[in-house]
Write a structure and sequence with these properties.
single chain; alpha+beta; six-stranded mixed sheet; 20% helix
């Protein structure tokens, strides 16, 4: 039996902020920042009407659980970096949850993934 991360009925979103940028893959992400270092996290979205997908900021109910996870400090230290031309190192929500060994969010048929570590 598979287990997935489920949206809690009550949540807070104290950590992370929505960050607008000029990245070739996305225009908006969730930025987790500590001093000068930052990590952009993106999640894929789907529009059933036009059957199109795009990358956007992650669900707000995930930010605190990721930021407060015991393994996040190590993951952040490994993957984060300083801004270069207004862009921070980027990871997907699935890469993040996999690295932290969290239960994943349910995978949809329309989802795609990146073959490389760096986005």
């Amino acid at each position: 039996m598979r287990y997935h991360y489920e949206k809690p009925s009550i949540f807070s979103s104290m950590y992370g902020s929505i960050y607008y940028c000029d990245h070739p893959v996305y225009d908006r992400c969730t930025l987790l920042k500590v001093q000068d270092r930052g990590l952009a996290i993106i999640q894929q979205r789907y529009d059933a009407g036009s059957k199109s997908t795009w990358w956007d900021a992650i669900d707000p109910w995930l930010t605190d659980d990721i930021y407060l996870h015991p393994k996040f400090k190590e993951f952040f230290g490994d993957r984060s970096g300083e801004s270069k031309d207004g862009l921070y190192p980027t990871v997907t929500i699935r890469q993040t949850m996999w690295a932290l060994k969290m239960k994943p969010i349910p995978k949809e048929r329309w989802e795609t993934c990146f073959d490389r570590r760096d986005i």
